[in-house]
Amino acid sequence: MTLIVEPTARTGGSVDNAVDAVTRVSVVPPTLILVGAAAMTSAAILVAPINLAIPDWARSSTTTRTPERVVAPPISRDVLTPATLLQSVRDESGLTWDQIARVFGVSRRAVHHWMAGGNLSAHNIELLGRFNRLVGNLPGDSADARKAALFAAGPDGVSPIDAFRRVVATSSAEVHPQSASKAALLGQQ
Amino acid sequence: MTVEDAAAEKCALLRQGDILDVSSIDVEGIRFDSEHGAVLISQTCDIVRTNGRPHVAVALVAQLAGELAAAAHDGKHPRYVPISKTSDLFADLELIATLTKNGLADVTVRSSIDPTDWEVQRVFARGVGRRFSRLALPDELVPWFDPLSELVQKKYDRPLSRFFPVLEVVRQFRIEAPQWVPPGVDITLHIVLNAGELPLLGPDGVGEPSDELTSWVAGGRSISDLCGRLFPADGPRPGGADRDLLWRSLADALAATCRPAARYASDVSVQTALASVVGQVASEEEFTLMQYLASAELDLAHLSAPSTE
Predict the structure, then answer these.
(1) Angle of helix B211-218 relative to helix B240-256, nearest 10 degrees?
(2) Domains held by chain A: number
(3) For A135, what's the count of Cα atoms within 13 Å in the CB-facing half-sphere?
(4) Which among B200, B247, B290, B295 is the top mutation candidate for probing chain A, defined by the most A β-carbons within 10 Å of its own β-carbon?
(5) Distance (Å) from the C-alpha of residue A121 to the closest C-alpha of chain B?
(6) Considering the domain boundaries, does residue A182 fall inside one?
(7) Min distance B126 CA to chain A CA atoms (Å)
(8) pTM of this structure
(9) Closest Cβ–Cβ partner in A112, A118, A173 for B201
């Protein structure tokens, strides 16, 4: 199954255009069309490259597919909103709402508002797409198994979920000055 | 006693906010007479410690009156920081000079901020910091926030307006973006509320709002309508999921005001500067440090230049 952007959301039909529409849409969050029935976990909602310190098994060839191969003929069309995508992430990963909020670096209230149809920024939509893809590429045939994989430390001691949190933490421009060094705080500089 | 020792002894008694009895200060070689002296704006710890800190910064003291003084007291003029709540004297942060501590040995202090009044000290320090630590919002983005700025400033002085009680529980307006370089900036407008204003979340959120309110909100409501439901003139305030929905809707409505005025219609750099604005409401105790570091307080008083300067 593949996700494409509803024609009203400024798409030219290719996945590249769909990605652009998702990430550049103004004010009103995009409505996505779910094409097919069962490929939520391998959905290519966003194909922008990601740089996560995640194991190879967590990466899928879908990330390198060409748009022509990704967009399959529509079988059925169910409307996929950010809220339904978020619910799917929760169902597939077994994470709690609080854990999902921490993944995206927002308050739990923000996540509940997203679930209730509240607007997400284009940046958060992009992150949601990336995290959905990460969850979809986890091994295991149950939420518990995927959750275990999400928390399993890799060779470098960092789990996929923590690697993703680091990506999120560095994905926004900090407007506050960098923290002072301890030496500076102690007046030694 | 050496000059250094005398200066150290003197500086040990000085604090930020002290008005020094100096007749003038030099700003880039130009002498400005200071009838009312100059006020120390360096932090007290930097004034007191002489080791490696040989200078202090002072600002010219200006005497203001009338509307200008009132606006400065309200924080609408970042240039002028009130030295106390009731004083007509202000630190003019446009005119700042550096003095050597050794030169302060013989300078007398005209007046001081009450060292026991921590609140006055804090307000002064915050006013000084605000002038220099505001987010340098790109010029092309400023017109997008003018309507919100005007709304807040207009209503802030009108306690009977529907929007006024909203402002009383708003802790801060903050803005966040993945990157700040136009064009195409995506902004999240955070409306951070006092703790306790939003209902506490249960394991699955706040539950479902009433059908009546849900359909009412879905009809598309103005800011004034939403404020009226949040703070009804009579009767109890809504609680739980209803209040949460009203705040979320108000955040959306406030974000929707962020549009440049018609006079910018042909200004491509302004029109393309911003790609989206999303409103998000949060309680102050649930706003994360990560969000705080990635966001800046929207200085609504300063945005509506040039009237603020």
Answers:
(1) 10
(2) 1
(3) 28
(4) B290
(5) 6
(6) no
(7) 16
(8) 0.74
(9) A112
Question: Containing domain of residue A125, as a range?
Answer: 2-171
ipTM score of complex: 0.77
**Model pLDDT for residues B200-257, shown as the tens digit of each residue:** 999 889 999 999 999 999 999 999 999 999 999 999 999 999 999 999 999 999 999 9
Look at residue A186 and tell me if it is in a domain.
no
| Minimum-distance CB partner of A173 among B252, B255, B294 | B294
Q: Let me know: does B51 contact B282? Beta carbons within 8 Å.
A: no
- Give chain B positions within 8 Å (CB) of A187: 49
Contact B135 A175 (CB under 8 A): yes
> What is the nearest CA distance from A120 to chain B, expressed in angstroms?
7
Determine, yes or no, domain membership for A176. Answer: no
Q: Which domains, ranges and CATH numbers included, belong to chain B?
A: 3-133 (2.30.30), 142-303 (no CATH)
Q: How far apart are CA A176 and CA A152, in angstroms?
A: 33
Handedness of CA A163, A166, A172, A173 (dihedral sign): negative
**How many interchain CB pairs under 8 A, A with B?**
94
